[in-house]
Design goal:
- By secondary structure, this protein is an all-beta fold.
- It has a domain at 38-117: Metal Binding Protein, Guanine Nucleotide Exchange Factor, Chain A (Beta Complex), CATH 2.170.150.20.
- 0% of the residues lie in helices and 43% in strands.
- The protein has no helices and 9 strands.
- It has strands at residues 21-24, 30-33, 45-49, 55-61, 67-74, 84-90, 96-103, 106-112, 116-117.
- The strands form 2 sheets. A 6-stranded antiparallel β-sheet has the order 3-4-8-7-6-5, with no helix packed on it.
- It is globular.
- 26% of the residues are buried.
Length: 122
């Protein structure tokens, strides 16, 4: 049975909170800012599954300086038509945190929502 991890706390954010940082749940490394939220396909949040049946709840951001890309770009099974994708990991701990999507000069990040938190590390 497929399961989706519970939503991260960012779902309860309000417009007043824009600009605050989002952190990696695993290590607390700063990943992005809510100010960099964006939409793709008329939505900021999407739920997709990969060919292995793993379900991902992602949120789209135009910038995510706290992630590093690994591996070659692929156009197979892309969730966004015309875009290639690369696995991206937390720069702090290496946890799989996102996919980077690219099409010509258009680049954005699909961050895995349950792997983000608004809680600043101690």
């Amino acid at each position: 049975m497929l399961q989706i991890a519970p939503d991260a706390e960012i779902e309860q954010d309000t417009e007043e909170d824009l600009g605050d940082e989002l952190y990696c749940v695993a290590c607390g490394y700063a990943v992005t800012r809510r100010l960099w939220r964006m939409s793709r396909g008329d939505d900021h949040e999407h739920v997709f599954s990969n060919p292995a049946g793993m379900v991902f709840r992602i949120v789209c951001f135009k910038e995510a300086p706290g992630v590093a890309n690994g591996g070659a770009a692929s156009d197979e099974f892309s969730w966004f038509k015309g875009y290639t994708w690369q696995v991206s990991a937390c720069s702090g701990c290496g946890e799989h945190l996102a996919l980077q999507f690219s099409c010509a000069d258009d680049v954005f990040f699909g961050l895995i929502k349950p792997k983000l938190t608004t809680k600043k590390p101690n």
